[in-house]
Design a protein that fits this description.
Layout (H helix, E strand, L loop, with lengths): L3 E5 L5 H10 L3 E5 L3 H9 L3 E2 L3 H5 L4 E4 L4 H9 L13 H4 L5 E4 L5 H13 L5 E4 L2 E2 L1 H7 L2 E6 L2 H12 L2 E8 L3 H29 L4 H9 L6 H12 L8 H18 L4 H18 L7 H8 L3
Parallel strand pairs: 1-2, 1-4, 2-3, 4-5, 5-6, 8-9
Antiparallel strand pairs: 7-8
Helix pairs in contact: 1-7, 9-11, 9-12, 9-13, 9-14, 10-11, 12-13
Bound molecules: nicotinamide-adenine-dinucleotide (NAD).
The site of nicotinamide-adenine-dinucleotide has 30 residues, from helix 4, strand 7 and helix 7.
Length: 303
């Protein structure tokens, strides 16, 4: 029989990912803050839980897919005493001995290392992997995510079948935190790429070139990228439905600039784009898709 799974965090990514596990035959119990997302899980064949503790109890595998570091810490350690943690403990307190904990959220590498250390300190034989993902909502829905994993090789091997129900490229990158370090690099590349595409869009339009034709031919050359191909519609239609929110990318630019500073790696373009992402947020665009960096270029260009 497949392992039983507790899934905490059923948002834009977590809902379709949990549904893919159900389709693959896993028995999934879920908990998240929005009641409608719990109804969606039930409709897909999963079991809604009333709290983190209830979801986690007895599960072989616990997956967390939460927005950011504070949410992962609150759910893991139960610090907040709110949000379904029964005022007691979180995942570490309630997980059964030997359970495998997969944090698939994007958080700082240091948070992942600390979680692994705290899990080891419980003495319950809990195993932890950081397993953040890339591929966006579409990748989550289609089960074709790229999954970057940090942690022990034996635990990675144990998690592989489950991860392959969620993604096609599943790679162990090194010890605890290494998955998050690679994800941080991913977010650096994506942000700089979106900014470059956005600047090209405004430049092309102001020059009177047909944007549809331009983006088609650019996508076929060396400028082509997953960003240019998948965000083409957003740029053309000025459709900024998330997707991936600017607020989350702002969090990720904080992670990558902090982690790079800690190892003495210079990120001149990354620092610049981190500032532009922060400015977009201050202009009220935080809840929009990150393709809305185009709005910042338009503001600077008087569009
Ligand atoms: P989201 O905001 O849509 O979903 C987060 C979910 O976490 C929500 O359903 C919320 O109810 C739940 N949650 C928050 N605090 C909780 C708590 N204390 N207890 C239980 N549930 C709680 O976010 P998302 O877009 O699904 O992103 C999740 C993570 O994946 C983030 O770290 C993000 O950076 C990363 N990510 C997102 C994308 C994307 O395209 N959206 C792509 C790759 C990675």
């Amino acid at each position: 029989p497949s392992p039983t799974v507790a899934w905490i965090g059923l948002g834009i990514m977590g809902s379709p990912m949990a549904e893919n596990l159900i389709k693959a035959g896993y028995d999934v119990t879920g908990y998240t803050l929005e009641p409608d997302k719990l109804d969606r899980l039930a409709a897909a064949g999963g079991t809604p839980a009333a709290s983190v503790a209830q979801a986690v109890r007895g599960a072989d595998v616990v997956v967390t897919m939460l927005p950011a570091d504070p949410h992962v810490e609150a759910v893991a350690y139960g610090k907040s005493g709110k949000d379904g943690n029964d005022g007691e403990g979180g995942v570490l307190a309630h997980a059964r001995p030997g359970a495998l904990i997969l944090d698939m959220s994007t958080v700082s590498p240091r948070t992942s290392v600390a979680l692994a250390e705290a899990a080891a300190a419980t003495g319950k034989g809990l195993r932890v992997l950081d397993a953040p993902v890339s591929g966006g909502e579409a990748g989550a829905v289609e089960g074709v995510l790229s999954i970057m994993v940090g942690g022990e090789r034996a635990d990675f091997d144990a998690a592989k079948p489950l991860l392959h129900a969620l993604g096609t490229t599943v790679v162990r990158c090194g010890p605890h935190g290494a998955g998050q370090t690679v994800k941080a690099a991913n977010q650096l590349i994506v942000a700089v790429n979106i900014q470059a595409c956005a600047e090209a869009v405004v430049f092309l339009e102001k020059s009177g070139v047909d944007l549809t034709a331009a983006l088609e031919v650019l996508a076929g050359g060396l400028a082509g990228s997953a960003v240019l191909s998948r965000k083409r519609h957003n740029f053309l239609a000025r459709d900024y439905t998330p997707g991936f929110r600017i607020d989350l990318h702002h969090k990720d630019m904080g992670i990558v600039t902090g982690a790079a500073r800690a190892v003495g790696a210079a990120l001149p373009a990354g620092d610049l784009v981190a500032g532009l992402v922060a400015a977009a947020r201050e202009q009220g665009d935080g809840a929009l898709d990150h393709s809305a960096l185009l709005r910042g270029v338009e503001r600077l260009s008087g569009v």
